[in-house]
Amino acid sequence: MDMQKIGAFLAELRKEKKLTQDELGEQIGVTNKTVSRWENGNYLPPAEVLLILSKFYKISINELLSGERLNEEHYKENAEEYIVVDLMKKRKEAKKRLVISFVVAFITILAGLSIVLLSSLLVAPIWLRILYIVFSIVVIILGIGVCCVLTVDAGVYECPVCGEKFVPSMKNFISGAHSFTKRKLKCPKCGKKSFCKKKLS
Questions:
Q1: Adjacent-strand bridge partners of 186
Q2: Which residues have a Cβ under 8 Å from the Cβ of 61 and sit 6 or more positions away?
Q3: Which of 70, 93, 97, 138 is disulfide-compatible with 75, CB 3.0–4.6 A?
Q4: DSSP assignment letter at 2
């Protein structure tokens, strides 16, 4: 994605409408500085603004992101390119979420075990030791909960029976037996319960 090309195209479209950056900003609800940043290629307009600009200039979002008007053949090529870019971005985000969930799990278990160890080493009344142990269990449960939230929709699971790719409900995700890459889940398509493999995209 060529930001400079997109910026120059946005400037060209605005000039075709005989608008200043101030006037365009007023019409779409942003400042002239924001318009300037887009046209200089420093920033890409957010998705909701791309939609507004697409309607305003009567061109497709695909053309906006290509930085030029497209014929039918180029339109199809660029659409496929943006689909691939989007899939790669989602895969990268899924990997990032999985890494964060592993870090959270490690820190949580370490913290929970440290509290248990500390409670056994302290010279303290029994009730205080029990309180430490309960606290460590709560910390571990909360950490596991955060890990589940981060990983449940980081990618999809693939049913080995019918090949369906799906995101399980939180209840099924938590209750399913699992290894590092597989989890026993019920497929929403075939209804079979089996060890489904985690796929990032």
A1: 193
A2: 50, 51, 54
A3: 70
A4: -
Eight-class DSSP state of 60: -
Identify whether the C-beta of residue 179 lies closer than 8 Å to the C-beta of residue 172. no
3-state DSSP assignment of residue 186:
strand
Pairing of strands 165-166, 156-158: antiparallel
Domain map (residue ranges) of the chain: 3-70, 87-151, 156-199
Indicate the CATH number for domain 3-70. 1.10.260.40
CB 6 within 8 A of CB 65: yes
List, for residues 7-32, the tens digit of each pLDDT value.
999 999 999 999 999 999 898 888 98
159 closest CA partner among 128, 194, 129, 127: 194
Whole-structure pTM over 0.85, yes or no? no
The tokens for 94 are 């899924």
CB-based contacts of 42, cutoff 8 Å, min separation 6? 3, 7
